[in-house]
Amino acid sequence: MQTRRETLKHSVVVAGLLATAGYPGFAMAAFNKAGFDAKTVQDATKAFGAGSLAESKDVTITAPDIAENGAVVPMGASTALAGVKQLLILVEKNPSPLVAAFNVNDAVDANFSTRAKMGQSSDVYAVAIMADGKALWAKKEVKVTLGGCGG
Amino acid sequence: MADPMRIRAQAAGGKATVRVLMSHEMESGQRRDAAGKTVPAWFIQEVTATLNGKQVLSAEWGPAVAKNPFMQFSIKSAKAGDKVAVTWKDNKGDTRTDEATVS
């Protein structure tokens, strides 16, 4: 897999550039490279400082049952819980599962939606990183008829 | 410079629902061109939103967000006439800000 190696090499260079551009004082603004490079859902959530993972009914993932086009799959994450720090959206079987991380604060509702690419049928996770270090997740299976990564 | 974003913010019940449609290639870094070479990743990394100049949202995105990304969120205690501005920054350092008024 030569090409993959090149990709990785390239991303290291980009990370280096970002690092030299100045590391912001507060952690939230720093791009969580470890999280986006992680290859499993667990690793990705750990990169956000989550200690224990637990399934929760208070976290909601919205996604279609069947996605005809994997290049555009609408999905959303929401929770009604208090004390949420971040909401993550992950697609388990993507090359890097983490799709997006939204920082939750007092000014916005913990309810975000976006559109993601999916390489193949997979479980989609919404993970809420709580202020106390817990990670609560919910998942939903999405069947993809046509993949959206590579071609 | 990238094309403008389409931002729609609607107030309802003391909240404003904001929908943003950005114009960006969102290249995943997984694709190969005709010569078999990997197309380098090019995607929006950071998205921030402000309400009347005060930051209300920040998000980090990976290359798995779909092309021409869509994002929806709601801001508490926003009312008609408030100004919502959305900024994105991609991994090449390109950035764009657009503003809309809550209706």
Please give a quick description of this structure:
The complex is a heterodimer of chains A (about 150) and B (about 100). Chain A is an alpha+beta fold. Chain A is built from three helices and nine strands, in the order αααβββββββββ.
Describe the protein:
The complex is a heterodimer of chains A (151) and B (103). Chain A is α+β, with helices and mostly antiparallel strands and 151 residues long. Chain A has 2 domains: 1-31; 38-144, Sandwich (Immunoglobulin-like). Chain A contains 3 helices and 9 strands. By secondary structure, chain B is mainly β. Chain B has a single domain, classed as Immunoglobulins (Immunoglobulin-like). Chain B is 0% helix and 50% strand. Chain B is built from no helices and 7 strands. Chain B has strands at residues 6-12, 15-21, 44-51, 54-61, 70-76, 83-90, 95-101. Classes of the chains: A alpha+beta (151), B mainly beta (103). Chain A binds chain B through residues 3-4, 6-7, 10-11, 14, 28-29, 31-32, 35-36, 71-74, 76, 91, 94-96, 98-103, 105-109, 111-119, 148-151, and chain B through 15, 26, 28-32, 36-38, 40-41, 45-46, 51, 54, 56-67, 69-77, 91.
